Amino acid sequence: MIRAQKVERVKALTKELENAAGVFVTRGEGLDATQTYELRCRLNEVGAQFRVVKNRLVRIALADTPVKAVADTVAGATALVLAEDPLAAAKALTKFANDNKQHLTLVSGVVDGELIDETTIKALAALPSQDELRAKILGLLMTPASRLARVTQAPAQHLAAVLAARAAQ
Length: 169
Description:
Blueprint: H1 3-19, E1 22-27, H2 33-45, E2 48-51, H3 55-62, E3 78-83, H4 86-99, E4 105-111, E5 114-117, H5 118-126, H6 130-168
Antiparallel strand pairs: 1-3, 1-4, 2-3, 4-5
């Protein structure tokens, strides 16, 4: 890669890093082409991108971004995951890492400008999604109303059953 290409690559990567809501650093030593393709597909489904870039170029691109805290963890065979939704990306990464323990390691990440480690990424992945939380809250709000409706209908049902039994006699 010639110098002009490297400069353009760094500019493009810097722009992607600035626009990402979350950035994760992974080590994918031993991932074959099929596994890498599967990982990319899983991440694309949740709006995340898997980028393999030279470490030196990554460090240069990270220097001027809000996610520069991960620069210290970029070493060896690393790859970046740029996410629009960090929670969904963390879930997809954790699931894939659990399925491929020997090949993919979660190193670190930055979510909302805060550096997180592997255990925090796994804890983030264990959280329920926004849709699940909304459904739970809606269920909690609807429970008292449905119970009230059942309680108010019960006397009427009992009265109707007594009248039906009396009419049958």
